[in-house]
Design brief:
With about 450 residues, the protein is α/β, with parallel strands linked by helices. The chain has 18 helices and 15 strands. Strand 10, helix 12 and strand 11 form a beta-alpha-beta unit.
Length: about 450
């Protein structure tokens, strides 16, 4: 048989726990510091922004955290998600490698983001929160939190990076359909947005700027909390449901991956797939290579500095140690909007320092080419972000071909690209530019890193 194979788990196999990799790490991650005092932050420092239940997950060292019943009930709508063996792609590439992909595009908003949006909305609802402010890059997170807000009766206010707001008007319409509001960032509805616009009237925005706006709204309004769709420990943990399912599905397929690949913006879909496999390895199981793929135009893991930095441009968030391009760095406006973040999840950065993961970077045309090759073989058109994972997986499959190895490759197809057809059109008409980040701007942003005596 040479056609694509689907591995489906029954609903009763939806995982009952999320996995917390901190419990298995050889060294704990560095502490999160207060932006003013540079002392480690305590749970109370974060209380204006998040409900206490999520803060306790953020600092937890327990290996497993139980998924609440109501969250599992909502997950049933699209979970367990399918795992496929891409046999038609293997044939096109003429590779001895076995290629598997976990498909998260089956969620209501078309990506992995609802896995954490539903959980975060649930805990906010439990804490009596009525309004949540957030930011979004490509619009995937804004749509996912809007969906979760609609289910739990929470109103959602989304600051969307201006360049994506203009490129993807349908994302805004989707957020509004779910009852959320969507504002182009930088905006004049926050103090930070106003001051930024005064200095940079033509700004196309960045995730760092949009985060500052959303955090400001939460910090200055008692009845508003803040939510983040990536980067934080609890977000990465919610996404591990992807890898826990994939472990069981690989067992169904009778294979174990040698290489696990994901794209990295803030790191959540990559962590979601690879952490459960790295956990197995850390507890004495088989070793894997975990490969993070990022855009060459915003290369935090491959070119950033491992240092304490702010999560936002307005310097309102605590300081975390991560691979960063500097919180004032504004990446060029390429099409994988979900990968345009100046930093990387502190947990992913820590794993990189421990040599538990590898990273590589590619330009967007090469990634779209990989996505189109994949789409023609498998019939699913990936999101521009996911094209980076596809590119990484194809490169590994071609390496196996050169080396004559029949390794098993697993990657996260974290979302479909149906809202991104404009980007595909531009790719086909040769209008996509492979831009490098501005070396000078990067040097300036890195020179501006806060000095922390650790
Ligand atoms: C948001 C998003 C990303 C980037 O975020 P991560 O936290 O790195 O996963 C990647 N792909 C898709 C489809 C997204 O929606």
């Amino acid at each position: 048989m040479s056609d694509t194979i689907k591995y489906l788990l029954p609903e009763t196999e939806i995982p009952k726990d999320w996995y917390n990799i901190v419990a298995d790490l050889p060294e704990p991650p560095p502490p999160v510091l207060h932006p003013g005092t540079h002392e480690p932050v305590g749970p109370d420092d974060l209380a204006p922004l998040f409900p206490m239940s999520l803060i306790m997950q953020e600092v937890s060292t327990e290996r497993y955290l139980e998924i609440p019943g109501p969250v599992r009930e909502i997950y049933r709508q699209w979970r367990p998600s399918p795992l496929y063996r891409a046999r038609r792609l293997e044939k096109v590439l003429d590779t001895p490698a076995k290629i598997f992909y976990k498909y998260e595009g089956v969620s209501p908003t078309g990506s992995h983001k609802p896995n954490t949006a539903v959980a975060q909305a649930f805990y906010n609802k439990e804490a009596g929160v009525k309004r949540i402010a957030t930011e979004t890059g490509a619009g995937q997170w804004g749509c996912s939190l809007a969906f979760a807000g609609a289910i739990f009766g929470i109103s959602v206010e989304v600051y969307m990076v201006k360049v994506s707001f203009q490129q993807k008007p349908y994302r805004k319409a989707m957020m509004e359909s779910f009852g959320a509001s969507c504002i182009a960032s930088p905006s004049d509805s926050t103090e930070f947005g106003k001051s930024y616009l005064a200095k940079n009237p033509d700004s196309t925005g960045s995730l760092g700027i949009a985060i500052s706006e959303a955090v400001e709204v939460a910090a200055t309004n008692d009845d508003v909390k803040y939510a983040l769709g990536s980067v934080l420990n609890h977000v990465l943990m919610h996404q591990t449901i992807v890898g826990i399912e994939a472990l069981k599905q690989m067992e169904m397929a009778g294979e174990y991956p040698d290489v696990v690949v994901g794209c990295t913006g803030g790191g959540s879909n990559f962590a979601g797939l690879v952490f459960p496999f790295i956990g197995e390895q850390l507890r004495g199981g088989s070793k894997i290579r975990a490969l993070a793929v990022e855009p060459a135009a915003c290369p935090s893991l491959t070119r950033g500095k491992y240092a304490y930095d702010f999560g936002d441009t307005g310097n309102m968030t605590p300081l975390t140690k991560m691979h960063t391009l500097g919180s004032t760095f504004v990446p060029p406006g390429f099409h994988a909007g979900g990968l345009r973040y100046h930093g990387m999840a502190p947990l992913i950065s820590h794993l990189k320092e421990l040599n538990l993961i590898e990273a590589s970077a590619y330009h967007q045309n090469a990634c779209f080419e990989a996505g189109v090759t994949f789409g023609r073989a498998e019939g699913i058109l990936p999101a521009p972000e996911a094209n980076h994972a596809v590119k990484g997986a194809i490169e590994e499959a071609l390496r196996c071909k050169r080396e004559g190895k029949s390794e098993t490759i697993l990657f996260n197809l974290c979302g479909h690209g149906h809202f991104d057809m404009q980007a595909y059109s531009e790719y086909f008409s040769g209008k996509l530019e492979d831009r490098n980040y501005d070396e000078q701007e990067l040097a300036m942003a890195l020179a501006g890193l806060p000095s922390v005596a650790v």
